[in-house]
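queue> pop job 88
queue> type: inverse folding (structure -> sequence)
queue> payload:
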């Protein structure tokens, strides 16, 4: 199929940026979206133009790097997939596709479609861990009984890949689905209870410091999240935060 691409080009963080039109031809419906972008970049390199900068790593839906806003949706029109897992069969011959970076104050654009998501790293560093004794006397995780429902919910929360689609989708640029998932994955397990109070307080404080907006329960984040992270995680984070505040 032949396509027209309208792509955000921005030379650097301080450049104003603009949409630029490109044409790509003979795109197979079996290609992934990133493979289609590779075809465009090969074409640009062959004609001496600057290729489009975009983030990617695993190309398997695991790393969360491939942040693109495609036709007004984070990770494009398919559900439950990242941009690298989006296939060109979702588009038709002759389509015009608009491609922009994830936009949020806390995710400044570095170049073209690449945004700086280190704000997520700093939130993780504020509390997204547990401290355990690794001297050799560590109790085997399997020796601690955990209700099946809690184990399943913790596992579901842990599938968040930190892609940032929830932030890019939210009209408030809220990171509460991401932080809710990171708080929940520990809050549900006995190993995570030890530092639960400081964790939720520190992660929420860092989230606010980074400039993410507040949650107004619109629910768009849950719909666009490629890993199906549930809004229940935001409710759990709020309850954890309330419990921590009462303790403090
Ligand atoms: S909650 Fe979903 S959309 Fe948000 S960072 Fe995690 S995987 Fe991405
Ligand atoms: S490149 Fe890793 S999730 Fe898309």
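queue> result:
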């Amino acid at each position: 199929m032949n396509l027209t691409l309208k792509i955000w080009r921005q030379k650097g963080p301080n450049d104003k940026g603009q949409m630029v039109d490109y044409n790509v031809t003979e795109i197979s419906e079996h290609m992934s979206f990133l493979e289609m972008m590779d075809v465009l970049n090969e074409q640009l390199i062959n004609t001496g133009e600057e290729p489009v900068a975009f983030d990617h790593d695993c190309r398997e839906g695991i790393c969360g790097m491939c942040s693109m806003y495609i036709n007004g949706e984070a990770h494009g029109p398919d559900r439950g997939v990242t941009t690298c897992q989006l296939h060109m069969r979702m588009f038709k011959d002759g389509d015009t596709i608009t491609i922009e970076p994830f936009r949020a104050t806390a995710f400044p654009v570095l170049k073209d479609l690449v945004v700086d998501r280190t704000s997520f790293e700093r939130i993780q560093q504020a509390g997204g861990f547990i401290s355990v004794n690794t001297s050799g006397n560590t109790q085997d995780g399997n020796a601690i009984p955990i209700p099946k429902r809690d184990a399943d919910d913790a596992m579901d929360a842990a599938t968040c890949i930190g892609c940032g689609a929830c932030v890019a989708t939210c009209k408030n640029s809220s990171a509460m689905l991401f932080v809710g998932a990171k708080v929940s994955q520990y809050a549900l397990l006995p190993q995570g209870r030890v530092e639960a109070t400081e964790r939720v307080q520190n992660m929420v404080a860092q989230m606010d410091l980074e400039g993410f907006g507040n949650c107004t329960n619109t629910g768009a984040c849950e719909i666009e999240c490629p890993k199906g992270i549930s809004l229940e995680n935001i409710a759990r984070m709020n309850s954890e935060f309330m419990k921590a505040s009462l303790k403090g």
